[in-house]
Design a protein that fits this description.
Blueprint lengths: L3 E8 L4 H11 L2 E11 L4 E10 L6 H14 L3 E6 L4 E7 L4 H11 L5 E8 L14 E3 L7 H14 L4 E5 L7 H6 L4 E5 L11 H7 L4 E8 L9 E8 L6 H24 L3 E4 L2 E4 L3
Parallel strand pairs: 5-6, 5-8, 6-7, 8-9
Antiparallel strand pairs: 1-3, 1-4, 2-3, 9-10, 10-11, 12-13
Helix pairs in contact: 1-2, 3-7, 6-7
Length: 283
Amino acid sequence: MSSYILTFSCDNRPGIVAAITSTLVQLGCDITDGQQFDDRLSGRFFARMQFTPVRHDIGEDGFASGMTPVLASFDATWSLREEGHRRRVLILTSRTDHCLVDLLYRWRVGEMPMDLVAVASNHPAEQISDVGEVPFLHLPVTPQSKAQQEGQILEFVRENDIDLVVLARYMQILSADLAGELAGRCINIHHSFLPGFKGAKPYHQAYERGVKLIGATAHYVTADLDEGPIIAQDVEPVSHRDSPQDLVRKGRDIERRVLAGAVLAHLEDRVMLRGATTVVFQR
């Protein structure tokens, strides 16, 4: 039987949970999971509810129609998705492809519930790990052709109904225009526990400064470079015994798991934007 996921946010006031759950019960639904967050600073209420219908005569449109009046009464921003309806994903990568390989593996073994439409890169296929059966797009870019290349990316996103773009160590800075077009549906992995060392060879910079922790940050892309709403972060201890190569190796592991965790959270409707930050409901 199909399961559905409802997410919503609204100004907080008494009775929200009671009203929503009562309506779901009236529609013949069994609520299987529910998480909520009352943001005292902003006065906003955030919630994620997963439910399974007991009745068979109401589909997704019926649930949406049934929920609309109560959600409208709270002036809520909301979405409803059947769990089996997978998000369509485009992965952008460059020659550093450890994050790409990890996402492909997780997708192939069923850990990443998405429809992987294509992998695209600014480098040719022979410089990228074999993507197998996944369509591959070579989209070369130079400073002179950047606008044209980004136009190709955006055209592909629109024509193929892409829901999420993942930058799996895609070593190109998106323009403000493209970042704006993909707001809330483009995830990047940054090779630092932000804020951190920027520019080339961050792990070498970290080594030279004698850091004791290295990390990675997955965030939504915005026009402000590396300052988008953060979804996931992780760190790992290092010591004076670690060489720059050790830091690179450990960094790759952190980047893989942080990006995978952020992508999975987005695919499962566990991330809700809260201005420049996020609310992330755990599994």
